[in-house]
Fold this protein.
Amino acid sequence: QVQLAESGGGLVQAGDSLRLSCVASRHLGSRALHMAWFRQAPGLEREFVAAISADRLTTPYADSVKGRFLISRDNAKNMVYLQMNSRKAEDTAVYYCAADAAAWVNLRSERAFEYWGQGTQVTVSS
């Protein structure tokens, strides 16, 4: 089992930067985990934001955040981060951290991820 806990959400002004963090209860380096961020805005379905493969070689992004958000991981600290720059009002959502230990996953699909955090609210005011 892997427990995930997100932090770093809050209220920010459009254009400001914010970094979300996700800590995993199990060491990310042993049986390495694929990690991802998803988000769900009010009234909408949960959508893919960004992901990072266990070997760090693959980092897909949703088109809506490409060039503005950056995902990274620190296996020594069991952490995954989402640096959010040039925030827009449409980035307002609950952001979820997800993880999976399978050898290969579709990093863009929420169905591929077994473990989920509780989410952290991010609100961007314009």
In short: The first strand starts at residue 4 and ends at 7. The two ends are 40 Å apart (CA to CA). Residues 100 and 114 are 5 Å apart (CA to CA).
